[in-house]
Input
Amino acid sequence: MDGPVVRIAPHLGPLVALGVAAFGDLRLDVPNADLDGAMAAAEQAVRERAPADGVLVRRMYSRVGLDPTRRRPSSEALLRRVQRGDPLPRVNALVDVCNWCSMEFQLPYGLYDLDCIGREIELRLGAEGERYAGIGKEVVHVAGRLVLADSQGPFGNPSSDSARSMVRPTTRRAVAVIFAPADAGARPLERALDVTAARASRFAGALVTGTTIVAA
Output
């Protein structure tokens, strides 16, 4: 896979599994006219019939000592936004596809510019005092929280990602990371990866350079 080497800290292996999808040849500065219609239809569909609830994701948060109501998984936050009548955010085609998939599968997604992160990544708990500049936020404090980190430190978590690694219109290579409860089994991640890859290819013109599941 043309993407990072991802590992999970041993003490988190029984709790969390990751789906990883790498993309190349992105052209995110060109809007896709078909995407807005597809997302609007998806938004209406979940207002009429909610997807399976995220109870396992909330339990995953609780099992690592996080309050899932105080710091909501991004998937839950997106679903709540749509159910109250607001549309999903529109950023660029690949970000939009990942938000759409996250809402439908009720699994948190992170999306990162491969040219802004290291080759080796670890999912671990944030150390005391660790933080990063967030997307649209001044500072995200990550002590005691699930974080993805490279040699420069943490850059993403299942609730909010960093400005350092964000995907921009100029991004040409990216990686999506899907956070899932380990006790949900591999099937939800396999399905999410398949659909995400297909939609990224269709709506963002992405070349899918590999997908994998990382688990204990």
Remarks:
- DSSP finds five helices and ten strands in the chain.
- The beta strands are 5-8, 16-24, 109-113, 120-125, 131-134, 137-141, 146-150, 153-156, 174-181, 207-214.
